Amino acid sequence: MKLHAIDLVIIVAYFATVILIGLWVSRRGSKDLDAYFLGGKSLRWYLLGISDASGMFDISGTMWMVYILFVYGAKSIWLPFLWPVFNQIFLMMFLSAWLRRSNAMTGADWIQTRFGRGRGANLAHLSVVFFALVNVIGMLAYAFKGIGKFAVVMLPWHFTENTTGLITDENLYALIILGLTSLYAIKGGMVSVVITEVMQFSILTVTSIAIGVIAICKVSPAMIEQVVPAGWANPFFGWKLGVDWTGIFDKVNDAIKADGNEFFMIIFGMMFFKGVLASLAGPAPNYDMQRILATRNPREASLMNGMVNVALYFPRYMMITGITVLALAFCMTDLRSMDKPDFEKILPIVLTQYVPAGVVGFLLAGLLAAFMSNFAATINAAPAYIVNDIYKRFINPQVAPKTQVTMSRFACVGVLLVGILFGLLATRITDIMMWIVGALYGGYVMANVLKWYWWRFNGYGYFWGMVSGIVSAMFMPDLARLVLGQPVSNPLYLFPAIFLISAVGCFLGTWLGEPEDEATLKQFYKTVNPWGFWGPIRAQVMREDPSFQPNPSFKRDASNVLVGIVWQLCLTALPIYIVLQRWSWVGAIAATLLVTSVIIKFNWYDKLEPAAD
Predict the structure, then answer these.
(1) pLDDT surpassing 90 at residue 581
(2) 3-state DSSP: the chain helix, strand, coil percent, rounded to 5?
(3) Which one, of 209, 156, 182, 170, lies nearest residue 11 by Cα?
(4) How far is Cα of residue 240 from the mean position of the Cα atoms in its chain?
(5) Measured by CB atoms within 10 angstroms of the end CB, which terminus of the chain is less buried, N or C?
(6) 599 Cβ contact list (under 8 Å, min separation 6)
(7) Overall pTM > 0.70
(8) CATH 1.20.1730.10 fits 5-516+551-607, yes or no
(9) Residue 552 burial (CB < 10 Å; 0-12/13-18/19+)?
């Protein structure tokens, strides 16, 4: 792509500004680990919410969402249930408050509040560290692959003539951009990340709305109807997907088959079942959990996740739908001419051809901000597990605060290098993403559900559940390929087997071990006050402290979650139909959004626990 000089100036100025601001505020994050990883628990909930939303607005995920909207149409709103996106609703309604009451620094640090410090608790602690590091490395590989694919189309410079192997323009661009972003993320920790992400999110919001408006102005509904199959704009589905590109663009059907999503009812059922379990498990030990633990109190933890839902979905889907609509209207001829069209590159292809000169610089800055936000948040979450949860806990408990920060920076670099290595070996964004959410998270959910809701669950059960789940997630794809003679088209099909193996590990580990110390369980129950199967512990706590009030909010929390999922779907679907100019759908969705918002106001916001003085 040949960029106009003003576009290059905007991009270079943006990079310089973000890095300089990140380095300038980095002094606030260098005092100790609490300051480095959690910003001293002094940051406002709305800043953390915007930061969290900005971190989720990643470029790899945005490229994937453009791909699925192009291929699956409005039915693509269900596919993010893979992550699952509605875990933010569970966090908003009750789980963020539970987690924040622990006053932990990391997910592994939280384990001590639930299981104590015995051998089982130590094993559970190490299993969380193992999962967190595997997850971060996978996410870094995912970010590496996405930014490389984006930059090689968007940026004008070429370093090599190679198109295969490790030394390609795609990989070199990824190395350069990861290196620049690492400068402030590694040096300044949480404070640098949050301050720069708030600035980046402002750019992202303006960028997203601009792309949506450009699509509305350039493309009429009739232009879209001429190039998409019947049912493309309808979000509802039957036993099968109900989108057939035959005679319009046959190679899109090949993409659907490669994704393994033909029998969509089965896929949806597994996504929703896994999604509910994953949401009940609480946040994975990543930047999402880090921001919850960085809030000032449980009330603000809940508000922070509410802010994520409000801030993220509308602007992001304005961008996603705008790019998709421009591709459908203007890029179909070019895409049809390709022998093997790479639909994951639709986003940069559209920006190279159909956005006015000068505006491109701001759009590129916004999209690079999306990548930098997600990458900075991911890399900042990793080293606490090495320094705080391994070195400080098991090797040198008296390590000086400054030394911890220095070691954390070296740990960041080490984890980054491993993530880059895996990114170099990967070929598709979708392959990495599907393994993380379909297989790896399948091995995470059972142990992390039981830890909240069942008093008898112990550290040994947690350890064996996590290890059996993670190991099966790592090797099950290869085992399935040996058995079937071909790769499994969708790692989600492996979820039932991985889940069952993990569940067996959880229950065997629990029943073959002793219950945790009663003092630990009572302290956890009094502090967190969860609902669930805590009868024996609840009885002891109330016998010792008759003034204690058990959590009575299960029915309210459950109803709020159901309403919240519909509310979140409306926030997702509304910008899609605005850009498609389907005004009858817009009216129905907006009305549903208004009703659900009123219910949430009275049944959630008005009943949040007050902040402690």
Answers:
(1) yes
(2) 75, 0, 25
(3) 156
(4) 27
(5) C
(6) 563
(7) yes
(8) yes
(9) exposed
